[in-house]
Amino acid sequence: MKFQTNEILNGKYTTRKTTKSVFLVPFTLLLIMFPLILMRNTDEPSPNMSSVQHMNNKTHTKGCDIFSGSWIPHSEGPYYNNETCKWMIDEQNCMKFGRPDDEYLHWRWKPNECELPLFNATQFLEIVRGKKMVFVGDSVGRNQLQSLLCLLSQVSQPEDVSHKYTTNVIYFKRYFFADYNFTLGNLWSPYFVRSKDADKNGHSYNSIMELYVDEVDEAWSSQVENFDIVIISAGHWFFRPLLFYEKGKLVGCNKCGMENVTDLAHYYGYKMAFRTAFKTLTNLENFKGVTFFRTFSPSHFENGDWNKGGNCVRKKPFSKEEMNLNGYILETYLTQVNEFKVAQEEASKKGLKFLMLNTTEIMLLRPDGHPNNYGHAMVKNVTFYNDCVHWCLPGPVDTWNELLLYMLKVQSHTSYGSKLESVL
Description:
This protein has helices spanning 27-32, 50-57, 121-127, 139-152, 218-221, 265-283, 327-349, 360-364, 398-411, 417-423; strands at 69-73, 107-111, 132-137, 159-160, 172-177, 182-188, 193-197, 209-216, 229-233, 242-246, 249-254, 290-294, 353-357. By secondary structure, the chain is of the alpha/beta class.
C-alpha cells in the first residue's frame, strides 16, 4: 500500500493529561517526547519535485551527490548495540525494550554515483582532534548527537562534563574525549529564536506560544562562538500553535484561531527562525567555525494521529516508487533550504563555510526506523504515545554521521582546505 505523507499526525509530544488511574510519565520521557508534529492542511498546493533535484545538485561533493540514492540490504550488523553503548537514552533504546524485528538494522544508504564508506570512529576523532563540535536545535538533533556518541565511544569513551558549564545538564550537554582533546556538545533551542508560553493555563501539548522571529535565542547564540563545528537543525516544534512577533509586534500566527490575526502557517515562522539563526552565525564577531545545516527529518505516523493510535510498524524501507517527497514535507524542506542558500552566499563573502546535510528524502524512505512503542517499558495504567518522530539507536540515524564524516573528509581537500584545516 502506498503511504501518503498527508496521513501524518496532528500533535506534539509533551506532558499528558491523566486520570486517577494513570500515573505521571517519568520526566525524562517527557523531555524526549516533546516534538510531535501539528500538521498543516495538505490540500495546499505542493512545490514541484524538480525543486528538490535542483537542491541535490548543489550538494555534490567531489563529483558525487551523496544524498541521491537508495537504501540497499546490508548483511553486517550495526556499529554498536545497547550493551556496547551506555550513552543512548531509553526512549531510543529499541533493543532494550524488546523490539522483536531487526531487519531495520540491515540496510545501508547507497548513493547512485559512488560508495558511502562505513563510519570510521578513529578517523573521525583524528579529524576533530583538539576541536569542539556542537549540535544546536531540538531533540531530533540530540538524537544525532547520541548516535555520534555511541559511534565514537567504540574507540574512545568520553566523560560527561556538562556540570562544569551549566546547571541545566539535561538540555545543555558537553562530553569530553580526553584521548583526542575533543569536546562534543548540545545546545537546546528548538526554535533558534526567543520564545515563551502564551497560554494562561500554562504549557501543554497544544498550548500556544509566542515566537519573536527576529530575536535570536541567547541560550545558544551566547555560547556557539566557543565551538569550531556547528550542526544546526530544527523542525517539529514549528507545527504547534504559535504567535509570530517581529520588532515586538504581532504579525500573524500558526493555528492560533484568533480573530483579526492572520494565519501565516508554520512556514513563516520556520523561514524567519532559520533566517535569524543563519544571520547570527554569519555576523557573530568571534565565530570562525564551519556550519553544517541538517535538513528536516520527517515522521511516519500511520493508522491515526499521534494521540489517536497512530503508529509506525513497518519493518523495511520504502522504495522511491512507494513514497515521494511532496506536500507539506516538501514545502517545509524547501522553506529552510531557500534560507540556507541565501545564508551560504553571505557566509562565503566573510570566509565562512556553510554546508548542507541533505537528509530529508533519505529519511522519508525509512518508516521502519522509529521507536514506535519500543522506547519504554510496558507499565500498567500508564499512557504512552508511539514515537514515530525520533530514531532507534542503533538505526538509520547513524547514516547522518556517516554522511557527516564523508563531508568532513572531502571538504578538507577542497579550495577551503586551509580554512578547514585551521578549524578541523
